[in-house]
Amino acid sequence: MKHIDTIIFDLGGVLIDWNPEYVFLDVFNGDRQKMQWFFDTICTHDWNENQDAGYPIIQATQDLVNRFPDYETEIRAFYGRWEEMLGGAIHGTVDILEKLIASKKYKMVALTNWSHETFPIALERFEFLHWFEGVLVSGEEKTRKPFDEIYHLTLKRFHIKAENAVFIDDNLRNIEAANNLGINGIHFKNPELLLEQLKAYNIHI
Q1: What is the pLDDT along the chain (205 residues), one digit of tens a residue?
Q2: Using an 8 Å Cβ cutoff, are 4 and 200 in contact?
Q3: Looking at the structure, do residues 122 and 44 belong to the same domain, yes or no?
Q4: Looking at the domain assignment, is residue 37 inside a domain?
Q5: String of DSSP letters for 55-80
Q6: Which of 190, 170, 166 is nearest to 178 (CA)?
Q7: Beta-strand runs (E) in 100-162
Q8: 77 in a structural domain
């Protein structure tokens, strides 16, 4: 059994419910097909991740407006109404986080793909983000998961040994990248399953 002394949490999709559908179902009057076309063609996942890696939001928005002028209003809604995409805390996972911290057995840090321009909004809204010993925000580092650099930065900054850490993320791509560097990974699906997955590392709550 590996000795785990550090637990690294992803934030969006694990501790915080973030979903652009909360805005764009309204923007497109409930038309899911048109909304999906917009996400697949204009405000794509890759485009959003570029801001997570530090690209300026104003420039990113203008880039798309220049390419798709007929959709300027919808494009500007992405970051103009960004706060509405925050659906709240995933309470079951927050409860797990709180108990892990209370146990005082583990170093608790967070590693998130998040724009440095919008992360302060989350910091203000979610008290539990202040519970971690440290949070590494991709936008501040100008890189993001799943690139090796961000994992190396996390290990170095918080004095973590890869083999002694468990990393929890809802994106399998990010877990596989961590595994390739010797970091143990848990692919998050829901809080109930997470409790069982932690037991595999002799972490009992």
Answers
A1: 679 999 999 999 999 999 999 999 999 999 999 999 999 999 999 999 999 999 999 999 999 999 999 999 999 999 999 999 999 999 999 999 999 999 999 999 999 999 999 999 999 999 999 999 999 999 999 999 999 999 999 999 999 999 999 999 999 999 999 999 999 999 999 999 999 999 999 999 9
A2: no
A3: no
A4: yes
A5: --HHHHHHHHHHH-GGGHHHHHHHHH
A6: 166
A7: 107-112, 134-137
A8: yes
**DSSP-assigned letter for residue 184:** E
Which residue, chain included where needed, has tokens 């694990």? 14
Tokens found for residue 1: 């059994």
- Tell me the three state secondary structure of residue 117: coil
Residues 10 and 62 in one domain: no
* Claim to verify: residue 192 and residue 112 sit in the same structural domain: yes
β-bridge pairing 165-169 and 6-9: parallel
CA distances for 133 relative to 7, 186, 195, angstroms: 11, 20, 22
Q: Is 106 in a helix, a strand, or coil?
A: coil
Give the residue among 51, 16, 18 at the shortest CA–CA distance from 135.
Answer: 16
Q: Are residues 77 and 165 in the same domain?
A: no
pTM of the model: 0.96
